[in-house]
Each structure stands twice: as C-alpha cells, then as structure tokens.
C-alpha cells in the first residue's frame, strides 16, 4: 500500500478562478493510495512547501503529488522540497492544472474542475509506480569554444577569459570583427564603430587566455556538456603566420583584382589580401579561387617579393580536435537579399543600395574614403530616399518578423546624410516607426526635427530610372494620395536574416532552430541564452535580430553561464534517461537515427547461444548525452528501450486512471 500525499494549489486566482481547488482535494481523498489531500493558495511559497514537508513527516507519506502549474516552472522547487523532507526527489509528480486546465477552460468551472480531478488521479496513479532515481556525475573540461568572431563572440570570449578560463574563438573569415567592423557610426550616440570595436579586437587577440582561430570552421561535434570533442578545419591560408609580419608588400604587388566582400562589391581587393585595415590578425590570406598560381599555375609574385619568406603554396587544410566544457554560438546574421523585390531595382540600378553598402560608402576607410558619392557616377547625391522594412514584416516575399534595428539605423543614416551634405533632402518611406531602446525615441525625434528628415508613411510600389535620376513611386497613407520622389540615391533598409548554413551548424552541434533559421533558446524568459542542449549557449543575432547593446548584454550573460559551468569540477547528470534491454534489442538502429541528441549508438556484444559465441549489434545509450525526450522509446519496434521515470507501466497507469473510472 502506497501512501500518497496530494497538494492542490490555487495559484492565487490563476487556477482558482476556474477550478474548485477545494473540491479537487476533497475528491482525491477517496482515491486509492491517497493518504492525505489538501489545498493551499500558494503551494510554491515557503509556507506551502513547509505544509508539504510537515505532511510527509506527520502522515508518513512515501510519495507526493502537487497539482499546480507547469513542471517546467516549479518541478525542481518541489523536488527539492520533498528531498528536504527525506524522500527521493523522483518520488514526486506534478499535475499541470493551470496551463493544461484552468487557462484553457476559463468559462466552465464544473468541467474544468472535473478535468483537474482527472489530471490529479493520473498523477497519483503514475507516482505509485515511481522508483527512486539517483543522479550521476561527469567531469568538466575547463575550456570554452566560441563559434563566431563578431562583437558577440569577442565580448563573450573576453568575459570568460577574464574569469580565468581558456577560450578559443573560431571565425570563418580571415579576421574577427564581424558586421560591426563594416559599420560607420552606432546609434543613438553616433560613436565611431571602429573606435569601439577595435580595442575589443586588440584585447581579444592579446589576452593570454584567448586563442584566435580565424579562417576556420567547425567540422564535427561529439560528446556532451563538460566534454565536447570538437573538430575544427583550419583552412589553408597559404601564408605562414609565424613568419608573416603583415608588411603588405605581397598584396601591393599582386596583379589580380576581385570584388571585395568586405566592401560588398563596391571596390576591389587583391587575390592575396587582408579584409580591412584594422583586421586582426593583420596578416593576409590567399584567395585560391582567384589566385593565378592556383588557377593557372603562373604568377607567384607574392612569394618572390615577400621579404619574410612567409608565402607557402603547399599549405593544406588542417583538422584539429580539441575538448571543451562549453560551446557558445555567436555566428551572427546576414542581410536579406533585396533583389527579391524586383520593383526596387536592387542589383539593376547601381544607385539603389543596401543599408550596409551605405555604411561602407560613408565610412572613412570605405571605397570613397568617407565621401558620400553615387556608385554610378561618383557624384554627390542631393536627394536620398530610404525605404524601410525591405524583407521584414512581409509574409509574401520576405520575413514576417520585425528586424528591430532597421528603424534606428535608417534614422542614423538619414542624420549622417544631412550632416555630410548640408543642402541635401532626405525622405524615409515607412510603415511604422519602432524605437524600443534607451535614448532611441529622442534620437528619432532629433532626426525628424533638427535634421528635418521627411518621413512618409506608406509603401513604395516601384522605382524607375529616368536619365541619372531615380523616380520613387509610393503612397502617403496619412494624406491618402500617391507620391513620387525624385532621388539621386535610394537606400534599402534590409532585414536581418539567419546565416544560410545556420540550420546545418545547429544540426552539427545538436540543438534546435526556428522556421527562420534563428537558434532557439531554452526558455524565452527564464533561459534566454541557454539551448535545449546542455552546455551550448547563444549570444547575439544568431538567436534573432538585435542591436549592438542587446548583443553585448547577451554575450555577457552567456559568459556568466559558461563561467558557472566551467567553475565546477563535476556536473550532475539527469537520471531520467533511456535504458536498453540488450537481450531483446534487435540492433536495427532506428533509435540511433531518431535521437536528436546523438545519445544512442550501436555497439557489438558477444553472447553464448547453443554453446557458441556469437556477435550482434545492440543499442547503447550515453546517459550523459541523453536528455530524456523519449523519441527512442516510441521508435523501438521491439520495445527494448525504456525511459526511466516514464516507463510503459507508469504511462499505462495514467491511461487506466483516466479510462477505467
């Protein structure tokens, strides 16, 4: 005979407004194996928990059921509570009568109460089959990996390194810096972006606990929290970094020119190059796809003129494997391809540019040395039109979400135009203006009032070219009439979107992502930098559109989480994991393919059959990797896999409680 205690929470009025909590508690008193049942207004409060502890001791309870909110919110709270009273924390169940009952049945108390009673009976039936479980422990490798070398990755690495742990930054391009290195000014203070970023880059490169691994990509990830084995592909630079001094002789003599990715195709770079003047490391890399030495077997000028003898055409990609305790994803974002909107003429009219191209044009180190000039003819534009929400808030051609930064960077760029060209006119076509940040509204007001930017509420239907002018056709919805603006330049505020390979990288590391390719946090409010995979954290715009202050704040938060993890000598592992009955396992491997955490593998065992030793394949679960999702249990055709704390016997007991009343 089990002795189960049932505790029904009112959750203030969250539950009690549509569930008769006292009736639920009273009804459960007569249910088999229930030795004690009561209700209380706030069961998660300190008095509520003391009520549970007291009942366990006085009533001799060996199992506890709490009927309250989602286990995600308070399961650990009540597990700790019953553990303090002397019970194994896994001799406890929660019945979710808030999210699954009260909140979805707000208008019918009788039926909501009936459902709450059913949910409570199911929990009681399951807890009678619960068994004590014990947590195990795994060691922690005190080293972190940050994937991505933008401002998010740099700040995360610095914060972790300052706490005494070694950090490796893996960046796919030849230099750290990310998108922030391409920006001219930052809103709302109009600080020089490079002036803020470059000291951070230098700090990261010179920090004794930070290792920069640029021009490299993550190739493979194995292992689990505290012990991730990561294989990194260091792409061949064709330059010996230990010999190179970064003098620049090689690229000054290189005869091959190709469009610069850093300048978004608005200027040329050499086949051997550094991306930008402040690049770190400030040592070149050879673009093998365009270098004549690699494409045609000729030239070799860079090798001949290099005074340090650093050019080495024989260098090949290198694979290195390192073990890390934690991984931070800080892979950033890309900009929406505005050519999707053919009516805007992006890619067809040279003077229709993206917001990031504008940043390069107005930047002192950009292709025009900071002079705002039209790409088509090098003339100074007098009329500049900005079009917002290009690719965002558009379910047809673009993304349905708001990119958050476009309103502010458009206001900033409008201000910079008026500041650079005093007699210029600026027009901004918008649907809404959103300024959700400290000092942002004031900045927007200054743009419209002091700098006299003309904001026109309405969408642009098309852009045409007449002579050297662009005609922007749109509407003014506030005046209710069509408008046509003659422009010298049009700037498109394009949406922030996920990287093209974001989904592949998420699958490689082993965590989830949303329909737009942004990485999914464990909980949007309570765990905004964690993923569902223990030991993997998020920082910056890889999670979703955000500006620099929010990115840096999240980077710091991720660093704190990593530091807390690495400061431990060992980690507790969740005991509610899958186990395999190898006697019945057919070794089909379906569970291996279905496991989202790569926790299951096939191994070969030997056994005696009719006096002979035979070998066969069976499934094996790595308990450190398993997250207890249960996908394998429903996939197993021979029913050889069972999930601790959610066994078939326990689940069927709940079904019987619901159906056999």
Shape: globular
Fraction of residues in β-strands: 25-35%
Q: Classify the helix fraction into a percent range.
A: 25-40%
Q: The biggest beta sheet, please?
A: 5 strands, parallel
Number of domains: 5
Can you tell me about this structure?
28% of the residues lie in helices and 26% in strands. The chain is built from 18 helices and 34 strands. The chain has 5 domains: 4-127, 3-Layer(aba) Sandwich (Rossmann fold); 143-235 and 317-333 and 498-566, FAD/NAD(P)-binding domain (3-Layer(bba) Sandwich); 249-305, no CATH class; 337-496, 3-Layer(bba) Sandwich (FAD/NAD(P)-binding domain); 578-644, Alpha-Beta Plaits (2-Layer Sandwich). The protein is globular. With 661 residues, it is of the alpha/beta class. The mean pLDDT is 95. The protein has a 5-stranded parallel sheet. It has a 5-stranded parallel sheet with strand order 20-27-21-22-23. Strands 2-1-3-4 form a 4-stranded parallel sheet, sandwiched between helices. Helix 5 (109-127) runs antiparallel to helix 18 (648-659) and helix 6 (151-162) packs across helix 7.
Give a quick set of tags describing it.
single chain; 661 residues; alpha/beta; Rossmann fold; FAD/NAD(P)-binding domain; 5 domains; 5-stranded parallel sheet; 18 helices
């Amino acid at each position: 005979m089990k002795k189960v205690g049932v505790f029904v929470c009112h959750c203030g009025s969250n539950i009690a407004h549509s569930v008769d909590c006292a009736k639920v508690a009273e009804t459960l008193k007569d249910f088999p194996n229930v030795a004690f049942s009561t209700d209380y207004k706030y069961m998660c409060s300190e008095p509520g928990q003391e009520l549970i502890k007291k009942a366990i001791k006085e009533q001799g309870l060996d199992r506890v059921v709490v009927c309250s909110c989602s286990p995600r919110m308070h399961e650990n709270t009540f597990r700790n509570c019953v553990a303090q009273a002397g019970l194994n924390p896994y001799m406890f169940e929660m019945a979710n009568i808030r999210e699954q009952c009260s909140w979805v049945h707000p208008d019918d108390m009788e039926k909501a109460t009936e459902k709450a009673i059913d949910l409570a009976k199911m929990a009681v039936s399951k807890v009678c089959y619960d068994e004590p479980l014990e947590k195990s422990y795994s060691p922690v490798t005190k080293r972190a990996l940050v994937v991505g070398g933008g401002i998010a990755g740099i700040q995360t690495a610095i914060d972790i390194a300052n706490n005494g742990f070694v950090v490796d930054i893996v960046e796919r391009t030849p230099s750290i810096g990310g998108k922030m290195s391409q920006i001219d000014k930052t809103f709302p203070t109009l600080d020089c972006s490079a002036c803020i970023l470059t000291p951070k880059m230098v700090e990261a490169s010179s920090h004794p606990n930070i290792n920069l691994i640029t021009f490299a990509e993550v190739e493979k990830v194995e292992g689990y929290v505290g012990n991730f084995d990561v294989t990194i592909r260091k792409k061949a630079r064709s330059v010996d970094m230990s010999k190179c001094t970064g003098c620049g002789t090689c690229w000054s003599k290189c005869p091959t020119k190709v469009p610069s990715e850093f300048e978004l195709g608005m200027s040329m770079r050499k086949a051997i190059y550094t991306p930008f003047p402040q690049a770190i490391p400030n040592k070149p890399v050879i673009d093998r796809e365009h270098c004549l030495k690699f494409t045609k077997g000729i030239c070799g000028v860079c090798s001949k003129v290099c005074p340090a003898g650093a050019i080495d055409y024989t260098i090949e990609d290198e694979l290195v494997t390192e073990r890390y305790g934690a991984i931070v994803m800080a892979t950033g974002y890309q900009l929406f391809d505005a050519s999707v909107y053919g009516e805007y003429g992006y890619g067809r009219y040279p003077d229709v540019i993206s917001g990031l191209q504008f940043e390069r044009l107005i930047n002192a180190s950009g292709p025009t040395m900071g002079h705002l000039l039209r790409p088509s003819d090098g003339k100074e534009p007098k009329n500049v039109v900005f079009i917002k929400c290009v690719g965002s808030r558009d379910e047809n051609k673009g993304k349905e979400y708001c990119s958050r930064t476009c309103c502010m960077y458009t206001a900033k760029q409008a201000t910079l135009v008026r500041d650079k060209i005093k007699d210029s006119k600026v027009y901004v076509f918008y649907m809404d203006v959103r300024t959700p940040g400290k000092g942002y509204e004031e900045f927007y007001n200054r743009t419209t009032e002091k700098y006299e930017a003309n904001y026109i509420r309405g969408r642009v239907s098309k852009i045409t070219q007449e002579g050297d002018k662009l005609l922007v056709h749109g509407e003014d919805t506030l005046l209710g009439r069509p408008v046509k603006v003659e422009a010298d330049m049009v700037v498109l505020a394009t949406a922030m979107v996920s990287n093209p390979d974001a989904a592949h990288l998420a699958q490689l590391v082993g965590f989830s992502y949303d329909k737009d390719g942004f990485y999914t946090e464990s909980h949007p409010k309570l765990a905004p930098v964690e993923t569902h995979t223990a030991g993997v954290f998020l920082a910056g715009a890889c999670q979703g559109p955000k500006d620099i202050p929010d990115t840096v704040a999240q980077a710091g938060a991720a660093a704190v989480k990593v530091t807390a993890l690495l400061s431990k000598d060992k980690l507790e592992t969740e005991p509610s994991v899958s186990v395999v009955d190898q006697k019945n396992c057919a070794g089909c491997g379906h569970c291996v393919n279905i496991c989202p955490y790569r926790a299951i593998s096939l191994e070969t065992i030997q056994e005696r059959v009719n006096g002979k030793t035979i070998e066969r394949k069976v499934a094996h679960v790595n308990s450190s990797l398993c997250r207890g999702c249960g996908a394998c249990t429903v996939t197993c055709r021979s029913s050889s896999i069972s999930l601790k704390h959610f066994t078939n016997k326990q689940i069927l007991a709940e079904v019987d409680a619901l159906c056999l009343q």
